[in-house]
Amino acid sequence: MAPSRRVLMLCGDYMEDYEAAVPLYALAALGVAVDRIAPGKHPGDACLTAVHEFLGFELYTELPGHRFAVTADFAAAAANPSRYDALVVPGGRFAEHLSADEGAVALVAAFAEMRRPVVLTCHSQLLLAAAGGLAGGVRCTAFFGVRPVVELAGGTWVDPEPFSLCVADGHVLSAIGWPAHAEIIAKLLAAMGARADAGRGGQRVLVLCADYVDDYEANVPFRALAGVGCRVESACPTKRRGEPCVTAIYDAVKPGAVSEERRGHNFAVTADWADASADGFDCVVVPGGRAPELLVTHESAVALVREFADKGKVVASIGQGHLLLAAAGLLRGRRCASGVPMRVVSRLAGAEVVETEGAVADGKIVTAAGWPDLAPFVARLVDLLGITVSF
Question: Name one GO molecular function term (predicted).
Fold first, then answer.
């Protein structure tokens, strides 16, 4: 079935990692095609992303992120922007360079003239300013240091309080950055004519985390599911609400190769461990990374996952998150999508290992091999939670 909506993402080296990945995987999970273009790059080329995170200094630190693939030709997309329903421009330093690129500015201006939704985060508001799209008092928010740009371009500055705020003024959707992705996704879907039906409503999802949880595998489900109306919380047996878990990035240069580990964003714990119970949630998500090695040493974490299964709730794991399901005895006799790192563990736990791209749902157990499969992983969760998004 052809996608009912198509979104264009304007990319470049050192765009913010989450601000590219979350819209990509969230929209793809809902059946929206996302074409990724970058001036000077061709399909198959990669953009290097950047992690922006506060690490104890007055300004965020920039760390290397993932390699983010370009999938479409810039010139072809720029020649026919009307075939796209929206434009997403992540934040990051790349926006400074693209603001001086005539082709990139003209593309942003074309979406503004068509009044198609334009999503801007963090620093990418500079591109709309260069395109003249903030003139006339357009209400806009951004990272705090971009306020003079918004005002010099004729826009009306809106403080990004809370950080989860997405400001919608006509076709312009703006936010301080990735903390606002739940609102961004919800408002972008609405702007493209989507209707989200949560069925019985109020589905609650718990994401289990610990230090060195996989960066994408924790944050993408967290933001994407919140964007379609779920109430999503994160919990860790050794941390209290408000404390951070450090994440890890794994992005092998070649398929099948062992990846180096790099530090990613901080992932905030939003609920105390005492409040994490199967009775209070409809689904538990166990991301990978090295965090599951810590979680399996806490019997309360293993017992919690088992409790979700015993009560007929949705249990999902991705990557090394399978270790926790194995320890809880949930994989025996189940089909399990597993990559190389968890293949032996899954088989020892009695699973039928499925070596396929995508995600596998066996009853209410959902598994995926790793973060490249996040779109089908989230799609399976949306389906099992009874959520439909129609255009």
Answer: lactoylglutathione lyase activity
